Amino acid sequence: MNTPGVRSGRFNWLAAYAIGYMVFLYAPVVLLPLFAFNNSTIVAFPLQGFTTKWFQTLWTTEALHSSVANSMIVAVSTAVISTILGACAARAGARYRFPFKKGIVGFIMLPLVLPEIIVAVALLVLLVQLGMGLSLWTVVIGHVLICMPFSVAVLNSAFQGLDVSLEEASFDLGESRWGTFRRITLPLVLPGVISSLLITFTISLDEFLIAFFLTGTDVTLPVYIWSQLRFPTKLPGVMALGTILLSATVLLLILAEMFRRRAAARQGKDNTPAGGLV
Amino acid sequence: MRIGLNREGVQGLTLISPTLIYSILLLAAPLLMVVTLSFWTQDYLEIDRTPTIENYRVAFSDPLYRLLMIRSLAISLVVTAVTVLLAFPVAYYISFHVQSKKALWLFLITIPFWTSYLLRVFLWKVILGYNGVLNTALTGLGITEEPLSFLLYNANAVVITLAHAWAPFAILPIFVALEKIDRNLLEAAEDLGDGPFRRFRRITLPLAMPGLVAATLIVLIPTMGDFITPRLVGGTNGLMIANMIQIQFGKANNAPLGAALAVSSMFIIGAVSLAIVLASRRFSGGAGR
Amino acid sequence: MTPENNNDRRQIVALNDVTKHFGSVVALGGVSAHINEGEFFSLLGPSGCGKTTLLRMIAGFEDPTSGSIEIDGKPMTGIPANRRPTNMVFQNYAIFPHLSVAENIAYGLRQKKLTKAELAREVDGALEMVDLAGYGGRASHALSGGQRQRVALARALVMKPKVVLLDEPLSALDKKLRDQMQLELRNLQRSIGITFVLVTHDQEEALIMSDRIAVMFDGQVAQLATPEELYRRPVNRQVASFIGVMNFLGAQMSEESETSITLDVAALGSVEIPKTSVPAGLTPSQISDVGVRPEMLTVLFDEAETAERVIEGQVEDTSYYGDMTYYNVVLPGLSTPVSISMRNTAGRSILQPGSKVRVGWATDAIVLFK
Predict the structure, then answer these.
(1) Model pTM score
(2) What topology is assigned to C245-370 in CATH?
(3) What is the pLDDT of residue A264?
(4) How far is B6 from chain C (nearest CA, A)?
(5) Which pLDDT score, from 0 to 100, does residue A269 have?
(6) Nearest CA in chain A to B124
(7) Cα(C360)–Cα(B128) distance, integer angstroms
(8) Neighbours, chain B (3 or more CB pairs < 8 A)
(9) Model ipTM?
(10) Which of B5, B114, B127 has the most A C-beta neighbours within 10 Å, making it the best mutation to test the interface with A?
(11) Backbone angles phi, psi at B238, to 5 degrees
(12) Is residue C322 over pLDDT 70?
């Protein structure tokens, strides 16, 4: 294909710009492992030599371990609940015509464009008025609210890509409604479901503000990190923690992407870019 | 399966009801409560439920709150403009110039976004600080003699950090809009005599408008309420309204005033967003909708 | 074979005054028809005429607003698609993308509780029936359009339904493959003897494949007849122009006797027609048009050639089709030229526009319209 605007043999300013932009995007991320392995309590250049001691201190920090455990509970619950709720909305939106559809779907997607501080404050006001104590579950409530729009968006494309006649064909061949869901619908939207679970899990794991407002005595990982940022001596440890988180997330995302492509290839569908992400 | 509008309507509503009920109970109700709270007053721990607009009078007349409100709006507008303008050429490059590795580019763009937001903001502090990476490099290379002090703890730092944090949210919608443009339209424009720049202005840009508007809103609205970035890199001159809302709900113990500030900022950002949407409609003349 | 003497065959589907409204839109306005066991029945009409809605109601995907549908003597009201003795070949084939060819075909057999060996035998038999023996292990997305169509057919046939419903099954194929599949489908249907109900907008396809055709316009059946009957005796101008090409000429009755009527036809002059040729339900005085098919008119190339009736005309233009040439010929007293189709034979050249020609025709080629 002859792409309009490309003149071969000429320096491509646009490509150079794009690469420069990538440097800007990765600049802070690259620093993370550098300082994590840097043998100095001061997070600054020049580097002082290689060490793994900051990683070792993580093993012995009890508060960190409990915050990781808390974050796992919150992120897994959030991922499951928001994916189920998101699937209901996405399926209804893709398959049925019903009154006020645009308004209802728009309302569910609202947290996507609502400043997090508003969501946090609003839930805090509600919980205080109801006299409910703050706990990890109140954080889950808030996280589900902001994750649901992402679930709906990811699953929407999955359900929209699902040809209605496939379900009709299954029904026509004598299969029941539940059997059709199990044998046709679910296998075909599974990559979308997994994408949704991973994305919502990652968002919840990383979310700070709502957790900061709504958690009780049990803190999540970002809230723990926030508390550590105040102490300069703790910073290299935070860098080490960040490096681990970064590696784990990238690994998870690569796995998710590979899985999605395999599933897409098996269905003989186009490998549309960004199909799995946002 | 699909029997008339009524039964289909009932099925659709039934299916969406769990999600809708969740949103009504935990989004609409709390928001309504915030609005109600903003019309009450608080004296230490006592809440006075007599409706009054006193909080709003304070929110709009007190110089500090007014300053924070204006600064928040200004910062988020600048951040949005910077982010979208920086992002557009990248989205354009991926959509029009990258042939087979589009998915890889998009994947690479989203990776930094998946690392902890808190840590990314903090790392900008490390980069921009007085003894930071950038200053070390500049003095080391002899470009500047003294470390630059205007990099950190001001509005500039907030803009740079937020423009970085929201990059993928700006690139993706623009990319999707550009991908949707039928390449035949561009060839048709060229065939009808448009040069590259005219074609870009008359075809590409109007058709990419929905993506640009989506990117603008997705960046603008949340940044208005950002809390972490001003706290970490903003200094005292970079604090924004969200920090004040948090203070009112926390230390200052004046939740009604905090609620009024929250409602006011929501109202302002809503009005600005609406203006942007309307202006973009006028620009693209209803095209691309 | 006419619809009347078809009635001694067993009815498999009965449509009793079926209507369908979508909100305020009337998709079907009262359709009554019978489909006989073992016949190839087509619903033919332009898009939006309600033919697909009717098919989907037989399948059980839509409920009639009023009226009823019976299949094999049993009323189908309230019976969902998965409990009807019908199976469908979808327009896009709806091949399950995550299942292999064999798994697609075996999909519906699961309810029948067969042993593994029986299942494999059924699947192999179905594959053989559609000429895809050995394709069972293929991934379904690796199939060509024609192969997908065969898999969809095999998946329906393996259920041994009372009726196979086909929703424009050939529209996604290219012309050559479509022509081949038309014959294959018809031959397959004849050999297994299951009733086929086909929805199509392609009149040629319907004529080639069907035993009987229901022509539909605007949610109504305009004519239900055999292909030959439809082509030779269309009941109105709409049916006549939808199926093939028809030249319409203004006409009026000038005389009526015991046994015949005489019409005054534009350009052709006075034509006497026996009363037996006037269709039932058409009062001779109502006749305002007659129709003549292009192949029923003949260009007389040779001076010696003659016909029952001959008229002089002038060639306006020609369209060359390879095997045929269509002449547009202006006849005296007509504002629009008539279309005449002539088979191209060896050694005969194509007439140039402006040439004077003699046109031959016969009175029994004339169709009468209101």
Answers:
(1) 0.80
(2) OB fold (Dihydrolipoamide Acetyltransferase, E2P) (2.40.50)
(3) 65
(4) 9
(5) 52
(6) A28
(7) 97
(8) A, C
(9) 0.83
(10) B114
(11) -115, 5
(12) yes
